[in-house]
Every structure is written in structure tokens, then in C-alpha cells.
């Protein structure tokens, strides 16, 4: 039902439009709604165009007030305010409704005065020869003058040009009105000169407006701005409109306030606050410029714990969209003297022994400035005063110097200034470690000790013969120390200022117990060796004489005898077996045994004759290139009966040592001569082919083979 009513009304209007007009040919332009008030006038700008292919003129114009269409008569009914037909008559000033247009395109209408009864709508009926048109024009007529509208820009900012518009939806030529501006707190009316009035009378809009352009100030924030409609003829205000200026601006009159009531000293706690008088929009945060950096915080109070002596001037800013900074504030912190230092005034370069020296105590700042000066050397008080002088400085004046500066707040000490006095080496001496008497084999360190500034560049060492040892270190290390190192040593020290030699220092090296023991042992051993050599010499001499005598006997018997001398060793145990062929006795006592040598012969050899009839046969082989005598091996004499002749036809030397075994075996034959018990005889015969000689009684044959 709610949708059906408007739909039927729209359908009726469309049918009316199609029935009583030619929509494809007429085009009428005018303001959609016109506004006026009782006693004023109405100016209706209007144009029309007819697209018919002909140039027909308008033949009749009728103006209805609040017309209606009668379905029965198929015509419009209503109060006719104006009606004119061809031929047209000119506008009549005495008529309330005037047609100011023409018969081709202009359909402008003027109503003066307008009545309250005219409120509603007007119908403009235009008729040509072959077509006609009904145009509706809305008319809003009030009993009182129309209200004004003040149009503001989206945002008004301080010092930024802003344009405000006072708008009246009315304009009527001949009706004299004026728009005026007034601002609270501006009694001089300076805004009047900045406003311009514009009038619009078009088919689109009808209005009268005043544009005010100015640069608002933050002091105008919250003030009332009024636009008034004046009737110039009656000199009275018809209506007005007022707005509250919302001027956006940064915080104003920002100040930094120190809340501490007393004088601030270094280390105190300081409280500051950031204040302002006006801000639009309100302050959202505060920024503190403290010690070269910015700190942001939401509240206006800043607390500084243990304020520094060199705290810089502080300022704050109150911020909304913009930040406004307060003037800087100096905390005027009181503190003891700072950066106290000792300066060398004379000389400007290095200090040598005997120079004149002047030191001065300075500082960078102090609050308050009234100060006193004091001096200390190596922690011991010297004097009071700003300067410290030495007419002729000595090495004993070298040391660490401090100066003190104090005021009513406190006292400050400078860093130690080391006074270095340059001088050649002095008090030179040689120190021996661990002591000047050292046992050989140990370690001795000689150190060249001196006092020099600058330090010694080179050390030179000399011995007790004044010979340069070509050692240039401060320490002379003797490791291990020897007896030959005993003596006096001295050193020489050199720096850029001179060269000095030390007095000699004596190093004594004594024998170690081991050396003493070795020397005693060598002496005793030498004596024993001498005695032993003498003993053996005597014994060898006796043996030699005995051998020489025995060699003479052998040579007289066969001419081929020789003697063998061997060391005496322990005898091997005797065998207890019954079938033993004899006992092995490789040892001969210190006696000389003789053997008669006879070389074996071959087929062409002639056997030698001579010798004893009873033999104990032994065979030894000695290589002609060797002088050693090899021990023999024994073989039973009974095997000789079955053996053939010896294959060895070389001129080999065979010998035998004959000595009767004391246990009765057959190794040796004890000599029958008791007076020459140590000499044994043996005769070697050739064991060739043929008949073996008969074994003599009491002679046993033993074959010895290497």
C-alpha cells in the first residue's frame, strides 16, 4: 500500500505529460524551487526551447497558482495570476505578476510583492500554434525573512587564509538587501572591508551570498561570528546567523617552570613542568629537550634524578597537531671545580736535569667561581698557590704532582702529572744472583742495574781482563756456570744523554762435590793402575824369560816348535760317564807349552824323522792369515784305526797342548819330569796310507780338530 500510492501518482503525472504536452519538442529550464517571504518579490529566470522544425512564436502564456488538472474537462484549473496572448503587450509595472520574456525562448516572470498565499507551486502554461506545454515551478514563501546560512571551510587554522560564506537563497532585482559580518571582540568592524557580495540569478540557482576571507588568529578561537541580513531601505535587520569560530592552533604561551624552591646543586633532584595557555585541539603529548636528546611523554612534569653539573639549558614543547616550544631555561646548577689539570708552562719540551720548571694549576669551570689552589707530590702536601716552580730541577724532583681546587661546594683534585727528568745513567753496579759465590754447574745471573731516564739503550759487558764479551743485554746469564767463569765483571750503560761504567763485581765459582769425587777417583785409579802395570810388568818379564828358555829347548829338538800363551779361566767340571773320551780343558794356566810341528805329507812327500817314540796325536788347523789359536775338538783315538789318509794335503800347521788331567782322563799327559811340570811335549806325525805305527805303551792318541 505504501508503494502503490506514489506509483499511481507518478503514473497520473506521466499520462498528463503525454496528453497535454509534446515532451519530445519542449524543453524548459528554471530553478527547481524559489524562496521568498511576505512582502518581498520573486524573480523566476526561465528559458524554453521547442524542437518542431518550425519557427512558430509563442501565442499564449498563462500563469497558474497551485493549479490542478481536471480529468473531466481535460483542462487545468487554478488561480490565474497572469494571462497574455498575441499580440503581446509590454510589462505593466502596476501589475503584481510580470512576464519579462519573449515569444521565442525567454519565459522569465517577476512577482512583486509576493504574498504568503503564493506559497506552493506555479504553473506556466505555454501555447504555440501546433503545440502546448505546462511547466511546474515550486515557490516557497514564508511569513518572515529567510534564514541565513554560514558556510565554513572544512578546517580553520591559525594564520591560514580562510573563506566563510553567508548564503541567502533569495535574489530579486529591485529589492535592496545587504549582508553584513560582525565578530565578537571586534568593535571596529574590520571584517566589513574584507567581505564581498555576490548575486546569482540563473536558471540553476538564485542566491545572494557574502564571502568573508581573512587569516584567523588563535585569539579568535571560540568567538562568535555573525552574518546579518539588512533591509537598506528600511534600515533594519531582517535576519542573522551566528557561528562559533573553531580556529585550530598550536599550544600557546608555553613555558618551562622549575619547581625546586632552593638553589640547585650537582646531584639534586629537579622537578620541571611544561605549561601553556591555549591549545586547539588539546595537548596530547609533551616533548622535553634534555641534554641534546628529545624525550616524549604524555604528562607535563619532568623529574631529573641526580642532576649533572653540566646540564644544558632545558626546554619543553606542548604538542597537538603542532608543537610549540617554550623558551629555554638554565638550571644554574652549582658544582665544585671541574676539569682540574696540571699544565707545564716552562719548559715547553722535555725536562733535563738542571732546567728551570714551572707548573700551573688550571680548571675549566666552577660555580661559584671563587676558588683556592693546593699542591701535592706523591700524595704529600707541598704548598698553596696556583703555580709550582723549580729553579734547577733534579732527578729527585721527578714524581707525580697533583693540584687541588676548591670552592664553597666542594674540592676537586687533578689527575697526577708525572714530572719526568731526563739524565744520563747513574748509580751503575753489577748485581749477582743468587749470590756472588756459586757452585759450578749451577746458574748465575749478572744484572747491570742503573738509574737512567730515558732508559738505557745498550748494555756492554766486560770481564776481569777488560775484554768486551759482546753481550748487550741487561742480564748476563751463565748457565751452567763453570770454574773458568770466576772473576770480576763490570758493565757499561748508554742512553741518549751519556755513557757510564760500573765498578767491578767479583764472581767466585767453587768445585762441586761431584767434581771433587771424580778428581779423587782419578788420582786413586791412576795410582792403582800404576801399581797394577808394575805388577804385570814384572810377571810378564818372568814369563818372557821362561818362554825364551823353553823355545831354545824346542828348537834344539825339531826346529818347528812354538809356544802359545792363554788366559787362565775356571776349568769345566769333569764328566762322570764311563765312556768319556776325556775332559775338555780350554784353559791353560799361565804356562808355556811346547809342541814339535811336523807337516803332513802326501804321496810325493818325504816323511820327516825324529822325535819321540810315544805320541799323543792331535790335529789343529790354523789359517795362514790368522794369528789366533782356535780351541781343539777331541775325537777318540780308536776311530783312527779305520780312517783313511787325510784328504787335507795343504801345508797346515798342527799343534797340541799336552797336559795330564788331574782326574786321570786322557786329555793331557802329565809330564814325567817333576822339575818342569808346566812344559809338555808332543810330536806330530803324518797319518798317511800304509801301516799304522804300533801304539806305544803309555801313549794315547787324541785327534783335535778345530
Automatic annotation (TrEMBL):
A Pfam family reported for this protein in Swiss-Prot or TrEMBL: C2-set_2
Keyword annotations from UniProtKB, A to Z: Cell adhesion, Cell membrane, Disulfide bond, Glycoprotein, Immunoglobulin domain, Lectin, Membrane, Receptor, Repeat, Signal, Transmembrane, Transmembrane helix
Keyword Glycoprotein: yes
GO molecular function, a single term: protein phosphatase binding
Membrane topology, from the record: Single-pass type I membrane protein
Record's signal peptide: 1-19
Gene Ontology, cellular component aspect: early endosome; external side of plasma membrane; extracellular exosome; recycling endosome
Domain Ig-like per the UniProt entry, residue ranges: 147-239, 251-318, 337-420, 425-508
Subcellular location(s) per record: Cell membrane
TM spans (from-to): 520-538
Main location class: membrane
Function, in words: Most highly expressed siglec (sialic acid-binding immunoglobulin-like lectin) on B-cells that plays a role in various aspects of B-cell biology including differentiation, antigen presentation, and trafficking to bone marrow. Binds to alpha 2,6-linked sialic acid residues of surface molecules such as CD22 itself, CD45 and IgM in a cis configuration. Can also bind to ligands on other cells as an adhesion molecule in a trans configuration.
Subunit-level organization: Predominantly monomer of isoform CD22-beta. Also found as heterodimer of isoform CD22-beta and a shorter isoform. Interacts with PTPN6/SHP-1, LYN, SYK, PIK3R1/PIK3R2 and PLCG1 upon phosphorylation. Interacts with GRB2, INPP5D and SHC1 upon phosphorylation. May form a complex with INPP5D/SHIP, GRB2 and SHC1.
Family: Belongs to the immunoglobulin superfamily. SIGLEC (sialic acid binding Ig-like lectin) family.
UniProt-recorded name of the protein: B-cell receptor CD22
Organism: Mustela putorius furo (European domestic ferret)
Gene name, Swiss-Prot/TrEMBL: CD22
Amino acid at each position: 500500500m505504501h508503494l502503490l500510492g506514489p506509483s499511481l501518482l507518478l503514473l497520473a503525472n506521466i499520462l498528463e505529460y503525454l496528453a497535454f504536452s509534446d515532451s519530445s519538442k519542449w524543453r524548459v529550464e528554471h530553478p527547481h524551487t524559489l524562496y521568498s517571504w511576505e512582502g518581498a518579490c520573486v524573480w523566476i529566470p526561465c528559458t524554453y526551447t521547442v524542437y518542431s522544425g518550425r519557427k512558430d512564436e509563442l501565442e499564449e502564456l498563462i500563469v497558474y497558482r497551485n493549479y490542478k488538472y481536471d480529468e473531466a474537462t481535460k483542462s487545468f484549473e487554478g488561480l490565474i495570476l497572469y494571462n497574455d496572448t498575441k499580440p503581446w503587450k509590454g510589462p505593466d509595472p502596476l501589475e503584481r505578476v510580470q512576464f519579462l520574456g519573449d515569444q521565442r525562448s525567454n519565459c522569465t516572470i517577476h512577482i512583486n510583492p509576493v504574498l504568503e498565499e503564493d506559497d506552493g507551486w506555479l504553473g506556466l502554461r505555454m501555447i504555440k500554434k501546433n503545440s502546448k506545454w505546462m511547466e511546474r515551478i515550486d515557490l516557497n514563501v514564508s511569513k518572515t525573512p529567510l534564514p541565513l546560512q554560514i558556510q565554513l571551510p572544512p578546517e580553520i587554522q591559525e594564520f591560514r587564509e580562510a573563506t566563510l560564506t553567508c548564503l541567502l537563497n533569495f535574489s530579486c532585482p529591485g529589492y535592496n538587501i545587504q549582508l553584513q559580518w560582525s565578530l565578537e571582540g571586534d568593535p571596529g568592524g574590520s571584517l566589513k572591508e574584507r567581505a564581498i557580495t555576490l548575486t546569482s540569478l540563473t536558471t540553476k540557482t538564485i542566491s545572494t551570498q557574502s564571502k568573508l576571507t581573512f587569516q584567523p588568529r588563535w585569539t579568535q578561537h571560540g568567538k562568535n561570528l555573525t552574518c546579518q541580513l539588512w533591509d537598506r531601505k528600511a534600515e533594519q535587520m531582517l535576519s542573522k546567523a551566528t557561528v562559533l569560530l573553531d580556529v585550530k592552533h598550536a599550544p600557546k604561551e608555553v613555558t618551562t617552570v622549575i619547581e625546586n624552591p632552593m638553589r640547585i646543586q650537582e646531584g639534586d633532584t629537579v622537578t620541571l613542568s611544561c605549561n601553556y595557555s591555549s591549545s586547539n585541539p588539546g595537548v596530547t603529548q609533551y616533548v622535553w629537550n634534555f641534554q641534546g636528546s628529545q624525550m616524549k611523554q604524555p604528562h607535563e612534569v619532568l623529574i631529573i634524578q641526580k642532576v649533572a653539573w653540566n646540564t644544558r639549558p632545558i626546554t619543553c614543547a606542548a604538542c597537538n597537531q603542532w608543537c610549540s616550544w617554550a623558551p629555554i631555561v638554565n638550571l644554574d646548577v652549582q658544582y665544585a671545580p671541574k676539569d682540574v689539570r696540571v699544565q707545564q708552562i716552562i719548559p715547553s719540551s722535555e725536562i733535563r736535569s738542571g732546567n728551570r720548571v714551572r707548573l700551573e694549576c688550571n680548571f675549566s669551570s666552577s660555580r661559584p667561581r671563587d676558588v683556592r689552589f693546593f699542591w701535592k707530590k706523591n700524595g704529600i702536601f707541598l704548598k698553596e698557590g696556583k703555580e709550582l716552580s723549580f729553579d734547577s730541577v733534579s732527578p729527585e724532583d721527578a714524581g707525580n704532582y697533583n693540584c687541588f681546587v676548591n670552592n664553597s661546594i666542594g674540592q676537586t683534585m687533578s689527575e697526577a702529572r708525572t714530572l719526568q727528568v731526563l739524565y744520563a745513567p747513574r748509580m751503575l753496579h753489577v748485581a749477582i744472583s743468587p749470590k756472588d759465590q756459586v757452585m759450578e754447574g749451577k746458574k748465575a745471573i749478572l744484572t747491570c742495574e742503573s738509574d737512567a731516564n730515558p732508559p738505557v739503550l745498550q748494555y756492554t759487558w766486560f770481564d776481569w781482563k777488560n775484554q768486551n764479551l759482546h753481550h748487550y743485554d741487561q742480564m748476563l746469564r751463565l748457565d751452567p756456570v763453570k770454574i773458568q767463569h770466576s772473576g770480576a765483571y763490570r758493565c757499561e750503560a748508554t742512553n741518549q744523554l751519556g755513557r757510564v761504567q760500573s765498578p767491578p763485581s767479583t764472581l767466585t765459582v767453587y768445585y762441586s762435590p761431584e767434581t771433587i769425587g771424580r778428581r779423587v777417583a782419578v788420582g786413586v785409579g791412576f795410582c792403582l793402575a800404576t801399581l797394577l802395570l808394575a805388577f804385570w810388568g814384572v810377571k810378564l818379564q818372568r814369563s818372557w824369560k821362561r818362554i825364551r828358555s823353553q823355545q831354545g829347548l824346542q828348537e834344539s829338538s825339531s826346529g818347528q816348535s812354538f809356544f802359545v800363551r792363554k788366559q787362565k779361566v775356571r776349568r769345566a767340571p769333569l764328566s762322570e760317564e764311563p765312556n768319556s773320551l776325556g775332559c775338555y780343558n780350554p784353559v791353560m794356566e799361565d804356562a808355556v807349552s811346547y809342541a814339535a810341528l811336523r807337516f803332513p805329507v802326501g804321496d810325493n812327500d818325504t816323511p820327516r824323522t825324529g822325535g819321540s817314540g810315544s805320541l799323543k796325536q792331535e790335529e789343529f788347523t790354523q789359517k795362514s792369515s790368522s794369528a789366533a789359536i782356535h780351541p781343539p775338538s777331541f775325537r777318540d783315538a780308536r776311530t783312527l784305526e779305520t780312517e783313511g789318509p787325510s784328504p787335507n794335503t795343504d801345508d797346515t800347521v798342527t799343534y797340541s797342548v799336552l797336559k795330564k788331567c788331574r782326574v786321570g782322563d786322557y786329555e793331557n799327559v802329565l809330564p814325567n819330569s817333576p822339575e818342569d811340570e808346566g812344559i809338555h811335549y808332543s810330536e806330530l806325525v803324518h797319518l798317511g796310507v800304509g801301516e799304522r805305527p804300533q801304539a806305544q805303551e803309555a801313549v794315547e792318541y787324541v785327534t783335535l780338530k778345530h
